[in-house]
Amino acid sequence: MLLSMEEFRVFEPKKTTYALFGWPLGHTMSPALHAQLFAASGQDADYIGVAVPPEALAEAFTLARQKLGGINCTIPHKKAVIPLLDEVDAAAHDLCAVNTIAFREGKAIGYNTDILGVAESLKRDGITPRGKKALLLGYGGAASVIAHYCVSQGAHLTITGRDMDKAAALQKQLCDTVPGAQVSVFSRRHIPRDIQLVFNSTPVGMFPRENAAPLHFLPHKTEYVFDAIYNPPVTATMKLANPRKTKTRDGLFMLVMQAAHAQTIWSGVQFEPAACETILRRTYGQLAAKRLHDKHGKQNIVLCGFMGSGKTTIGRKLARLTGLQFIDADQYLEEREGKKIPDIFAERGEAYFRDRESAYIRELSQRSGIVLSLGGGAVLREENVHAVKQTGLLIHLDTPFYRIVKNLSHSVSRPLLNKPDKQAETRRLYNARKAIYHRVSDFSVRSPKISETLEQLVKSI
Question: Which of 14, 15, 67, 78 is catalytic?
């Protein structure tokens, strides 16, 4: 639930309620994320977003003391809220930024869980900053958090951005609060070439301007790229990395972990790593569903690919992650016709089957909010491609041929493969269709593993 200030003034919580204060808030995923965390920990609580203009922060904070169990703050309130607090945790004090507020015994106490999210992200990727040369793009609130973590862990940090005075101010803040901090400031033209870790804390590359990047290229020794942006999940800065030698991480895991730590502060609950991983996957799915509409202007996700490529299995998993309904076009056809596809081929022939297939695809394409798995030959007809693309994003599962052969090895329900040499016929059809799948689809994903294919697919949207 997202509220305006006018709505928040009259809001009366029905149970323990927490809120996110920010301006603006149209992009936030925090209410859905916290709802998952509440469910995972068995808490009966609500979480709302409140669009609080800067001039209304003091009023909103007073109302929060009366109505809420705690607050998260995002841009532009992380520093502005500090004078309104009774106490500030030492880490938040050093960071000069508060993102989590707890109300206890009449006091408002400020914390910063963003830095815990950063630490968890690097730990997850096996990245140790100590002794590394790190580059920080930006000097705002998120930059302060990343910078403090890097220098406190023994990294030599270089800060860059458009405003060298602001970069120098962050440098001074770090040197004043972190003993032995190694911090340099350079313009983007003079970034050291031996940088190993790159951190983007700027909003450059965030949806909808996601083709922008704060750098044109990465230093050639870059081993790791962390981008605090999570929409898109694969940013323009991350795309600069060589996937064979450079790990990348978007900001969504940081978002999940800072939220989990905020709930620990509010209520004392602890979250198992496995629960956080599940929530992360679901949040990626929710983001994909949001981007399906916001970026692509579509209501459905449509999967195409050769028989045995995993469309049904992956489609079901994708539907669970995104909250969409799964429909297998072949199964739908069989239910409507009252016969199995091999029987339809045997009794009426392939031409009849293709006509019925097209009719049902047109029907299904009129629906909204579905993951649709197409039969292997459906996209051979342009009319089918045109129909599904009216409402759907068409994605090709480019599964390696050896995996397809393995998947089909025990199948006896593929009438097109009823030949003396089944593998040779599979290869012939695969070669004949592969270029067509690539041509008609909006994009392709490729991996021999279902889990990797699913992750790539969700992030590609």
Answer: 78
